[in-house]
Structures are given as C-alpha cells and as structure tokens.
Design goal:
Layout: E1 6-10, H1 15-25, E2 32-36, E3 42-46, E4 54-58, H2 65-81, E5 86-91, H3 110-121, E6 125-129, E7 144-147, H4 150-157, E8 165-169, H5 175-185, E9 188-198, E10 201-208, E11 215-223, H6 227-238, E12 243-251, H7 255-261, E13 268-272, E14 284-287, H8 290-301
Parallel strand pairs: 1-4, 4-5, 5-6, 6-7, 8-9, 8-11, 11-12, 12-13, 13-14
Antiparallel strand pairs: 2-3, 9-10
Helix pairs in contact: 1-8, 2-3
C-alpha cells in the first residue's frame, strides 16, 4: 500500500504527537472538524475523501478520559460511514486499562467495555503502547499491535553516565517489566512491596534487593499522583541509594503529582509524549515516540511485520 492511500486523523487529546507522526511519514495530517457543542456533545466531520483508504485515527484517552474516548468512537463511526477500507484506532495511551478484572464484588471490567465499544464503532485494528495489563490484548477479537517504549528509553539511558545501576519495580506487579529493563541495560534488579491506603496515597512496606551505593531506576507503565514513585524513591534513598530516576511510559500528572515531584526526592522523571506533559520546574525528560508509532503505522499499512520495532541491541 502506498502512502497516498494512507490517511491519518487526530482527535483533540494529543494533536502535536499526531503531527509529529505525519512529519516522520511525510504526509499531511488529515483535515477534520472535531469540536464540542455548548451542551458538551461531540461533533466530527471529515473534510476529505477517504473512500477505500487505510485510515488511522490517533487519540490518547487521557484526561478527560470519557470525553476523549467518546470523541474517538465518533471519529471511527464517521470514517466507517465514509467508506474507509480499514480503520485502525491508534491509542498511544489506553485509558481504563487499570480496570481489567473483577477484584471486588459488583464492579465492571471497564477495559473490556472500552474494547467492545471500539469494535462496535467500527475499528478493524488497534495500535497501542505499554498497556497496564498485557491481557487486555485478549479483550479484542480484532488484531492488536502492542508497542513498548523501552527502545526509546534505552537510547536515553545508555547516554547517561551512570555508576552501578539497579532497576527497581515500585510494586510487586511490575517485576517482569523491571527484569526486562535490567536485562536490557545490564543492571541489577529489585522491587518494593507496597500497600495502597486510598486512590492517592501509597505506603511502602519493604524492599527486596540491594541499592546501597547504587543509582536506582524505577520503572512503571504509568503514574498519575506520583505517590507510588515518590514513596519508592524515599525508601530507596533510605536504604542508601545515591540517586533515583524513574522511567514511566505514561505520565498523567495532576496537581498532587507535581507537588510531590517538587519535593525533590525523585531526581529525574523520564517519560514519553504518549500524553501531553508539562515540566513545571521539575526535571522531566520527555522522549518522543512519534518515530516509533510512525514506523508501526507504515508497516501495518504495508502489511509488514512490526516485530523488529521491539528489538534492542539486536535482540
């Protein structure tokens, strides 16, 4: 499939990332009207012919999540009704991913509901990055291409002049991710047992691994209030860590998070532009995933393999 058959449109959540993807591919961002009526309803109109085209709609379902999800669904429906040949929903950040199971009585599995809505709207394929739970791919009965930000982080991490480095997972659930990063950069590994007291507060209970005299890299898929990260950083420094950085795929930072980051317990936050990020006086390094997503879009459009995009150091 040639690039002239490829059309990329963007919702309102992360238009700069969509523009960067189009710049890498070498095509203009598709023309579409995406706006809200005074009562909050979303209106979409695609202003160019997409009949028989391979359409990609880029939308991170970040804050306000409900609005951006609805916007994406309406854009998919508009493309389907305009006779697009194939519609790929590109979600650099997949919202509601933390609600992937019934861990309490009478609660929904909202990550599955979002998957159902995307398919019902008319999506033929999904491209996403660093899902909170790998099993969400199984919630879809359409193809899902799942990318990882680790190759992008690796390029930055290898440029740092670090001493003895230890990769630490700030909770038990991220040990597998921490092990992958440790193998990637040739570092030690550890993890922290934590207990969440409420949605915004975390209590670190114990640390497994040796961090005394080491530089620590905390790895996680997302952060919202920075409670897990800052609590883990305090425990690492209490146990003798020289410095603590954090590499987080999706930084959905709110006011509570910025207050905690400004306390200075975390020396640097490394993240991606999968969602819009403001630094606000704290050392935040935002890595660009536009190239990664652009290459994936090109390969999907040409029916080529995306496997090589996962490879680091030849693996």
């Amino acid at each position: 499939m040639h690039n002239d058959e490829l059309k990329i449109f963007s919702g309102s959540s992360n238009r700069p990332l969509a523009e960067e993807i189009c710049r890498v591919i070498g095509i203009p961002l598709g023309e579409a009207v995406v706006k809200s009526f005074p009562d909050g309803e979303t209106f979409v109109k695609i202003n160019e012919n997409i009949r028989g085209r391979d359409v990609f709609i880029i939308q991170s379902t970040c804050t306000p999540a409900n609005h951006h999800i609805m916007e994406l669904l309406i854009m998919i429906d508009a493309a389907r009704r305009a006779s697009a040949q194939r519609i790929t929903a590109v979600l650099p950040f997949y919202g509601y991913a933390r609600q992937d199971r019934k861990d309490q009585p009478r609660v929904p599995i909202t990550a599955k509901l979002v998957a159902n809505l995307l398919v019902a709207a008319g999506a033929n394929r999904v491209l996403t990055m660093d899902l909170h739970a790998q099993q969400i791919q199984g919630f879809f009965d359409i193809p899902v291409d799942h990318l990882y930000s680790s190759p992008v982080f690796y390029q930055y991490l290898k440029s740092l002049n670090t001493g003895k480095l230890v990769v630490v997972s700030p909770d038990q659930g991220g040990v597998k991710m921490a092990a992958a990063y440790a193998d990637m950069i040739g570092a030690g590994i550890g993890f922290i047992a934590k207990r969440r007291t409420d949605a915004a507060t975390v209590e670190a209970i114990n640390m497994v691994g040796e961090v005394a005299g080491c530089e620590v890299l905390l790895v996680d898929d997302m952060t919202e209030t920075a409670g897990t990260l800052t609590t883990a950083a305090k425990l690492c420094k209490k146990n003798g860590a020289i410095s603590v950085r954090a590499a987080v795929s999706h930084a959905l930072l709110n006011e509570i998070a910025y207050e905690r980051l400004r306390e200075g317990v975390l020396d640097e936050l490394i993240t991606t532009n999968s969602v819009p990020v403001a630094t606000r006086g704290f050392p935040i390094k935002v890595m660009d995933v536009g190239e990664l997503l652009a290459q994936a879009i090109l390969r999907i459009s040409r029916n080529e393999s995306v496997t090589s995009l996962f490879r680091i150091k030849g693996f």
